[in-house]
Structure formats: C-alpha cells, structure tokens
Amino acid sequence: MSSPRAITRFAPAPTGLLHLGHVVNAIYVWGLGRRLDARVILRVEDHDAQRSRPEFERALLDDLDWLGFEPDLFPTTTFRAGPCQSRQSDRLAVYAAQAARLVNRGMVYACTCSRRTLGPVHDCPTLGAPLTADVAWRLRLPVDRAVRFEDQLTGSQTCLLARDEADVVIRDRHGNWTYQFAVSVDDYLQGVTLVIRGRDLHDSTAVQILIGEMCGRVMPAEFAHHELVMASPTQKLSKSSGHTGIAALRAAGWSPSRVIGEAASRVGLAPEGSQVEAGAVERLFKRPGLLGSPVLS
Known about the structure:
Blueprint: E1 6-10, H1 20-35, E2 38-42, H2 54-67, H3 76-80, H4 92-104, E3 108-111, E4 136-140, E5 146-151, E6 155-160, E7 167-171, H5 179-189, E8 194-198, H6 205-215, E9 222-226, E10 230-232, E11 235-236, H7 246-251, H8 256-266
Parallel strand pairs: 1-2, 8-9
Antiparallel strand pairs: 3-4, 4-7, 5-6, 10-11
C-alpha cells in the first residue's frame, strides 16, 4: 500500500496586492512541493478583519490564474463561488471550537497588557479575569522547551522557546483569531505535512508546532524556509512595493513566464532574464534526497 501524498499550501493574506516575493513563494510551493510529491492547497489567510479586503482577495485570485499556478485543492473557483472552508474568515467556528477545548483545560487566560507594559507574561496582572471580547486571549505554551523540526532546505533545526514567547496571543482584543493560532489550527486540520515559506517566518515555527500539538496534532509538519526577495540589504519586499507588484508588471506588458523568471532569478533559482512557465517550476529544483539549497537542474 502506497503512503499518502504530502500536502503543502500557498497561503497569501489579502491585505495588499501580490508582488515578486509572493511569486518566489509560489515557485517554491509548486516547484519544491512537486519534487517532494506534495499536493498544493490554496488558503486565503484573512484572519485580520481590519486589514483584509475583498478586492485584494479577488486580485490575488486573478494573479494566480494569470500566472498559471493551479492548486490541487481549493482552486480559485471555489473562493469566487462564495463561502470556502479554506478562507479563514469562513472558519471562525473552527477556531472557536479549538480555543474552547484549550480554555476548558485551563490553558488560556485574559490579558489587558499592552506591548509596552507587558512584563514576564506569566506574571500578567489580569490572571483570572474573564475571557471577554475586549481582551487578548493568551495560550500557555511550555517554557524553555527545545522544539525540533526538519527543514528541507537547511536541515534539522532545534529552537528553544524563550519565556517571553511562551504565552502567545491566540485572539486579539479586536476579536481576531491571530496568525499564529489560525495557521497552526489550519495546518493541523487541513493535513498540511510540508510548510514552505520565507525565512522571515522561521522564528514562528516552534510556537506553531507547540500550538498544533496542544490542539491534538501528533506529528508536526516538515518545513522549508526559503530565501526572500529583498527591497534593500536589510528590508524584504512589502505589499506597498508597487514596482514589483504583479498587477503593475502585467500592466507594463510583462508575460507570466517573464514574471516567474524574474522572481526565480532574484533568489538564484534561474539566470537573469529567464522565462519560466508555472507548470515548469519543478525543473528549477534538484531531485529530493539531500538537504540543502535548491539548485538548477
């Protein structure tokens, strides 16, 4: 009997327009993911109700279709059709149910501290206060525990969760389920076994593994943290980086293969001036078997 295929995900947040940095992530998700025999889930991470916009979701779906990146699970048509169980704003009951189990175990407490006034989190002065809608909900995570995980690009990793990271906010005072909580619940319940994302999120890995474990996950996912497209030597691209936005490049006459080739060249996956079709990004990666940075085939 063959083993089940791995599952990875492409999970943009509709808080702005997609840019070359998102294309780099798509190249890794579809390219490295396919090399590792993974199916791709599309997830829209609109957990932040204050910053997410329907027009940004429509734009990112249009960009994916134009570029040619096709998810295996939850294609763009499912999001356009209405409620979708891979859109975080349609999964609020799922997060509430997972949080309720943690509350019942005494693992969640109310917190009114600001970032400026927050001291050692276990000494929060509001311990014992009710979990009302206008306070942050904090989840107690194990302190000073070494968390180990496998990274397909950088090898075996060990992270130590520091005391000031241990009590993570899972629901903010505006009523939003936080990124750390929503993505951990989604990766667990959607069966994601390979998380491919930028190296700026490496430090979130230990927290997310522990949240998943507390929700019932037995085996953590494997990870692959890839290089970022940088606006400067110290600053990654942001959604305000208009000159690298997909919509702007498309309006300037760029083809999808030129956009993908440009993104691949920015992180050393292809020579400068390359044109790469979405269906061919798997060829940018070596065969699986040895860990290390991907190289041209």
